[in-house]
Amino acid sequence: MKNNPFPPNDVDRRYLWEMLVNRDILAFVSQDWSIVEDDFIAEGFMGIDAGKQDNVDKWVLKYPSLESYRTEWLSQAEEFAKVDLVEDKEDAFHRVTVLQDIEIQGNFALLHKKFFGPMQKKDGGEIATDWQTLYRCKKVGDEWKIVGFTGYMPLMAKSVDTSRDTGKSLPKNASQHKTAGPYAPVLEVNPGKLVVISGQAAIDKEGNVIGETIEEQTAYTLDNCVLQLASAGCTLQDVFKVNVYIKDLKEWPRFNAVYKHYFVEPKPVRTAVESGLLMTLRVEVEMWAVKN
Questions:
Q1: For the chain, which residues make up each domain, given as ranges?
Q2: Lower CB density within 10 Å: C or N end of the chain?
Q3: Residues 6+ apart with CB under 8 A from 278
Q4: What is the CATH number of domain 158-291?
């Protein structure tokens, strides 16, 4: 199990996180539906499969009842049990799972559960995880229940407006080595107003560090970057330069597994260095954007 990232005084978010991360992972890996069966409301339950498609016309009502979802859940859990992973299966799920965005209004909650990065198999293959699930929950008494979800939604970079002029472009003759990560080697940037944000990290408004893993902290850090850019009228599409300060370069591939989903082509140029960071931070990111 992983430590709950929400503080003790945030009772509802702690409960929801525990239900949809620790308990959900334990149940799936154990192939034990009884662990989570009380976390659902059967009446009116509905599960939608987005199929990683941006086009909502292609989303389908795959689970019209809780029973139909239970049947598929058990089938997937059985198939997953046959897979031999390099790491412990619970650890693998915790590593790729990020749940930080939880919106609560009264007795209703909307949760964004994201999955980043591959699970490595012993045979050399991998199980790719690159989607998000939107859960709808309702509070009944002192407990939260799942009333439905939309699963296998694409991660954010696939749904942005790529036709908009962002004032940056990849030169025709630009090239880079085959092992290069999710970045551009060089960009041409048209003159405009520059927007520069200070280094952002996985820190909430109260000054608390959010997340233990590099995946969790990367997602929260980039979400904070999005908020800072928005305050200046920019988006990640306007970013042309990124500096990354990472505590342990051994976690660089795991950082990239999250990072690559936040940007469309041409991705920003980028520099990364291993650096000592404050508190329990694992990564810090600063960005430069052009506002045309």
A1: 11-154, 158-291
A2: N
A3: none
A4: 3.30.1330.40
